[in-house]
Amino acid sequence: MATTTHHPRSPGSMAAAGGLTVFAAVMLFIAGILDLFRGIMAIADDDVFLATPNYVFKFDLTSWGWIQLVLGAIAVVVSLGLFAKATWARVVGVGIAGLLIIANFLSIPYYPVWSLILIALYAFVIWGLCVTKKDTDDLA
Length: 140
Hints:
Keywords: Membrane, Transmembrane, Transmembrane helix. Residues 21-133 form the DUF7144 domain. By secondary structure, the protein is mainly α. 69% of the residues lie in helices and 0% in strands. The protein has helices at 11-44, 61-83, 87-106, 112-130. 29% of the residues are buried.
C-alpha cells in the first residue's frame, strides 16, 4: 500500500497565505516610501509639521527626520527582500515594522493623523508576516 504525503493545508488556504506575504510586502514598501518622504519633509522644512507644546517625548525635528528617513529606507529594502521571498526579510520585516510603529508613536505631536495612519499600516505588515508559515510562500 503506497502512502502519499498530504499537506495539512488546502491549496486555496496556501495561496491565500502566500498572498498575505505579498500584501505585507506591498504595505511595507508603500509605508516605507511614505516615511522616506516624511523624513525628507522634516529635514527640509520644519514649518510643515505641527508643534504640540506639552508632549512628553520631545525631539529635534531635523534629527527626527533623519531617523524617519533611515528607517523608511530600510523598510523599502526589506520589502524588496519580501518580494524576492528571502527568509531574512520576514524576520527583519516584523522588526522594522515594530520599530516604525514606535517611531511613529513618538512623532505623534509633529504630525498626528499621519502618524496614526502609518502605525495602522505597519500593524498590517506585522500581521501579514506573522500569520503565515514559511512553507506557504512557495505558492505566492
